[in-house]
Structures are given as C-alpha cells and as structure tokens.
C-alpha cells in the first residue's frame, strides 16, 4: 500500500499490503502481500503504526493443536490510525488514533454495564474470525483465507477490528509506549489496581518477573504497596524490577518460597500474583498469601483442562483465589485513566520498551523473547 494514499481513495475497497503470516507452528513468519477487505457494519479498518510482541503470541505460534490454527496473522498489542469505518460506527472516525484490544467492551450487555467485572457477554472470547459475521477479512494473493488472532491481528500493515475491541486515545502519546496498553502493561497494572485493589502499606509477592509480572509491580507501586517481593529464577530480574518498585527478591531455586515469604511478611503476603501460567506456581502463590484476608490473583494460563488443588482449611480461614482477565480493566474507560497517569509522569511505560525494530525484522523479536533478552520489543510498520 502506498503510504501517500489518502483514506478517501481506499474507503470501501480491498487494500493490498504486507503482513507477517504464521503458516506453520514454530516456523519463522513470512512477510508477504495480502488483501485486507473493507470493514463491514460495526467494524473498523486500521493502519497499524507499531505493534509489540507478547508471550501469548509466542505461545500460539508454537502451538500445534487447536486453538492454534494456520495460516494466521498473529499480534494483538498495537496502536494505529483509523483508515475507514463500516456502517453503525460512531465512536471513531477516519484519522483517529486507536488502540485495539483482545478484550471486548460492547457497552450494551449486562456485564459491560456492571461495575463488578470487565467481562462482555456479547463477545465473551476472542475469535479467529470477525465476531459478528464468522468470516475473515484477510486473504493471501492466491485467495486463501488467513485467520484472525485474538480479534486484533496486528502483524500486518492494515487490520480490521470490531468496534467493541477499539479504544480511541490521545494521538500525542508516543506510539511505542501507547501500544503497550493494548495488552501487557494494562493487564499487570490493572491486576494490582482493579482486580486485587492493593492497599497502601500492604505487602505484595509476584511470582514470575516477565513483563506482566513487572507491570504488576508497577501497579502495586502506584497503589502504595510498602513491600513488593519478586520471585523468579533469574536473579537479574531484581535489578530490572527495582525501577518498577520491587523491594525484595526471592530465588525459588535456593529456598522454599512458602516459608521464606511467610517469614519476610510476618505470616504471608497480603496479595500474591501468579504471572507465569503454571498450576504448581498458582498453588505456591496461594500458600504464600496471608490467612484471614490474603488474596491470590492468577494472570497466567496453564494448558486446557488443568486444575488447581487448594487446601480446604485455607479457604475456610479466608484466603481467596481469583483470576484476572486484562487486569480487570474496561478498555474504553480505564485505558484513558492509565494514559492520564502516564502523562502526569506517574505510570512508567517507556521503561518497558527494551528493543525497537523494523517490520522486516519481526522474526528477530521472536528470538529476543525466546532468549529472554527483552521485556517488550516494539515493531515499526514503516521506516518513518
């Protein structure tokens, strides 16, 4: 697609552009030209400015069985500009800067209208197709259908997203930082802020110090936690995590987390967060939270059918376990709050970006994440 082309020239027509297509599990993405159909009613076509690689992208890229499906356009953490809109789209217009999110918010269902959760009954889970029609907006040049990913598919110069998955933002925010609010940082910060409701002066233990775990630390710091303990097998994460509020570090290879954290906190942390997606770690985190009021929040997801086993006596004694989808945030309202805190220099976003690369080097981003060398690698769709 010619970068000089005006939106009015492409409105209502298919766009030919580049995409990084995942054709086989675990194999390098293929940069190729594809066709992106115009948006249907309730849909928005977006020109992606930049995108970043999340651990979830990596997990689905490796996965061989359903819900993995190929060929597919991965990517779900991004920022872009509205190129055109379908009928019945009123909240954004051509030229608006938007963040697409895997988390939907239709604003119409009982869940979206409730303050008790951030679920959406109308679009309960991300789809491999457009949610209202069950069809794809992507085809390769031979006409083969390319599947969507988490209702976003940002590893392409243009994508189509339902309006329930779009949040309009201030265009003045640096794209490389704003795109992180599309998933990772919002999820971690929100888990501390919205899901756990971490209190000032409380103690927090975070199991797994990837970008999500460090975002939890950032959220706990913003909430005023007095002590934030990081648990990870990589000791280097402590130095990295200090900028996000970590005060202590536990290496599980050299001790029993349960007894150490209980000793450090005088009976258990007020809040524990599991950020890896391992059943054993979820149970360990629960064991480390305080009886009476301790709350364990699970952000990671283990394999299908996995089950957590908890001591019934701990439940009776008041310890709770809960999950957190997108940090409990409602995208269309809560992302704006986070952006304002960033503008006020309270929320750290820039510090999560460790690498910036061109779209043609997207497979390098996968290598960096696999090798544990990056928090967030931002991928720019053009060289501008």
UniProtKB/TrEMBL annotation:
Its Gene Ontology molecular function terms? alcohol dehydrogenase (NAD+) activity; zinc ion binding
Q: Which UniProt keywords apply?
A: Metal-binding, NAD, Oxidoreductase, Zinc
Query: Which residue ranges does the record assign to the Alcohol dehydrogenase-like N-terminal domain?
Result: 41-170
Q: How does it assemble?
A: Homodimer.
User: Which InterPro entries does the UniProt entry name for this protein?
Assistant: ADH-like_C, ADH-like_N, ADH_Zn_CS, GroES-like_sf, NAD(P)-bd_dom_sf
Q: To which protein family does this belong?
A: Belongs to the zinc-containing alcohol dehydrogenase family. Class-III subfamily.
Key word NAD present in the record?
yes
Q: Which residues form the Alcohol dehydrogenase-like C-terminal domain?
A: 212-335
Oxidoreductase recorded as keyword: yes
Record's catalysed reaction(s): a secondary alcohol + NAD(+) = a ketone + NADH + H(+); a primary alcohol + NAD(+) = an aldehyde + NADH + H(+)
What name does this protein carry? alcohol dehydrogenase
- The protein's required cofactors: Zn(2+)
Organism encoding this protein: Prunus persica
Q: Which PANTHER family match?
A: ALCOHOL DEHYDROGENASE, ALCOHOL DEHYDROGENASE-LIKE 7
Enzyme nomenclature, EC number: 1.1.1.1
